[in-house]
Amino acid sequence: DLFPEGLAVDAEKRLFYMSSMHRKKIVKITTSGQVSDFVAEGLYGLNPVGGIRIDPRNHDVWAASDPGETSASELLHFDAQGKLLERYSAPGAGSRDLNDLVLREREVYTTDSSANLVYRFDRKPHEFTSLRFPRRIFLPNGITLSGDRNLLYVADMLGVIVVDLRTGAAQDLVPDAHDTLAGIDGLYWYKGDLIGVQYGTAAYRVMRWSLAKDRPTVMASEVLERGTELVNDPTTGAIFQGHFYFMANTGIANLENDKIVDVSKLEPVHIAVVALK
Fold this sequence. Notes:
Blueprint: E1 4-10, E2 15-20, E3 26-30, E4 35-39, E5 49-54, E6 61-65, E7 74-78, E8 84-89, E9 98-103, E10 107-112, E11 117-122, E12 127-130, E13 143-145, E14 151-155, E15 160-164, E16 170-172, E17 184-190, E18 193-198, E19 205-211, E20 218-226, E21 237-240, E22 243-247, E23 255-256, E24 259-260, E25 271-275
Antiparallel strand pairs: 1-2, 2-3, 3-4, 5-6, 6-7, 7-8, 9-10, 10-11, 11-12, 13-14, 14-15, 15-16, 17-18, 18-19, 19-20, 21-22, 22-25, 23-24
Protein name: Gluconolactonase
InterPro entries: WD40/YVTN_repeat-like_dom_sf
């Protein structure tokens, strides 16, 4: 009954980290399948934990949490041993729900699915700043950086927006003529392409979109996984040694207001693997 949401990998340590919405904790998983608590349930009074990323420079773990009944959605920073170093409430009044995040050298970029915003969190002054987009964004979710870390890709229910972090200029990524970029959850960069877990289509699918080198356009789309019995409510994943690992059956639709709807539907969480060329 973890009901996981986020998955990340520390490539150097060969460890995966999985966040839990229901148990409000983070577990770590070895490549041989051994599972242990990284941040135990009840420790630090965490809310449901969503997006999670690893800082490869020091192996620190950053995560985003949902709001609680009486507590705010937060950006969380743990050291490599699971000690909470920092926690920052989402900015502003009203409903806030930090969802996914990505790390840059001096910044953290995170989506807010309730306020329909994307923030840059500056690590030195500890300040959130909202990014500007050419259109209104709706339920922003997956987020990733290009290989040179100059372009930020943000997925929402309508598509994907590309932000040039050097200039602040932003524009929609144009899909190919026979495909859509709507409704992407986890979003990742791989060898000049985007990998995504997509729910905005008739069936959940894992996709690879090949990008043009000179303009924000998808040149080709490839379905990596779609509609198999193994896959049920996938959310996010992680790329490790040329393979995409993703949570195939989070069961998140069986959790409402932190209550399990049907206990009989609980099953072990499976991590599926797709080879990337």
